[in-house]
């Protein structure tokens, strides 16, 4: 059996819940999952349902037999998770894989100048949303003693930088949460993984700089950053290892990056 066939078999008929699937790493991950096997059952969520509908249309046209459920979900709204999960069609209710991908950064202000609304939004989305959705899904996995929880961390959660205090804190929280959850589930067959990307060219910087295209472009100037597809390939590789194999942490850089601060830029 080839690598591709083996990976596909390990995801066949699995229900995968993916947050933030309308763009960037989430969008690429949905496409990569479908590429590995058309037998996977995808629950695609994001705030922009029209983008999810477009993605579902693309995937169903390219992969015959794939099953997809799309739902509008704002992970910063913690009260939305219970009704969302209870409202899932029976075919999608028994979740096998949770990918906590949704997240964002807002601004590059120094401490003392940080907008309170931005601070709250980042913690609500990146931290509280991940924790609460995991708490809601975990009983489903515990009942069958199997499953995988994969959280999107960041190099920012390990290597902190000025004007990034809140975002770095949120991703550090994801790292701590993942580590503790893995220890708490050590007696189960539930895996906990964290993928920590470095510099990736997505909508991330456009959102951080509130639509200022020049500032967003400057983040990647003189570099060849990772693409969303690069990260998606790693996510799906991790998910398709043997059930007894846990790739606990994966730090992924472009070739020109060695830390948050060490990025080589061509003149």
UniProtKB/TrEMBL annotation:
Domain of life: Eukaryota
Keywords: NADP, Oxidoreductase
Entry GO MF terms: oxidoreductase activity, acting on the CH-OH group of donors, NAD or NADP as acceptor
UniProt-listed InterPro entries: NAD(P)-bd_dom_sf, Sc_DH/Rdtase_CS, SDR_fam
Pfam family, one: adh_short
Family of the protein in this entry: Belongs to the short-chain dehydrogenases/reductases (SDR) family.
This protein's name: Uncharacterized protein
Lineage, opening ranks: Eukaryota, Fungi, Dikarya, Ascomycota, Saccharomycotina
């Amino acid at each position: 059996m080839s690598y591709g066939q083996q990976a596909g078999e390990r995801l066949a008929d699995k229900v995968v819940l993916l947050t933030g699937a309308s763009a960037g790493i989430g969008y690429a991950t949905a496409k990569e999952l479908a590429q590995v096997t058309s037998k996977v059952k995808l629950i695609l969520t994001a705030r922009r349902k029209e983008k999810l509908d477009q993605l579902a249309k693309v995937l169903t046209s390219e992969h015959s037999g794939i099953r997809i459920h799309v739902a509008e979900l704002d992970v910063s709204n913690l009260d939305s998770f219970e009704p969302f999960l209870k409202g899932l069609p029976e075919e999608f209710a028994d979740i096998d894989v949770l990918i906590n991908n949704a997240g964002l950064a807002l601004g590059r202000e120094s401490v003392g100048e940080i907008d309170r609304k931005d601070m709250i939004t980042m913690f609500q989305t990146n931290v509280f949303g991940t924790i609460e959705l995991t708490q809601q899904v975990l009983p489903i996995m515990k009942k069958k003693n199997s499953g995988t929880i994969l959280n999107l961390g960041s190099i920012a959660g390990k290597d902190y930088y000025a004007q990034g205090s809140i975002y770095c804190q949120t991703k550090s929280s994801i790292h701590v949460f993942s580590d503790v959850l893995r220890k708490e589930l050590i007696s189960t067959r539930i895996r906990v993984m964290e993928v920590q990307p470095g510099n990736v060219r997505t909508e991330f910087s456009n959102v951080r700089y509130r639509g200022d295209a020049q500032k967003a472009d400057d983040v990647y100037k003189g570099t060849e950053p990772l693409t969303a597809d690069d990260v998606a390939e790693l996510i799906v590789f991790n998910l398709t290892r043997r059930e007894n194999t846990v790739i606990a942490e994966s730090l992924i850089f472009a070739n020109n990056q060695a830390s948050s601060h060490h990025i080589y830029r061509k003149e």
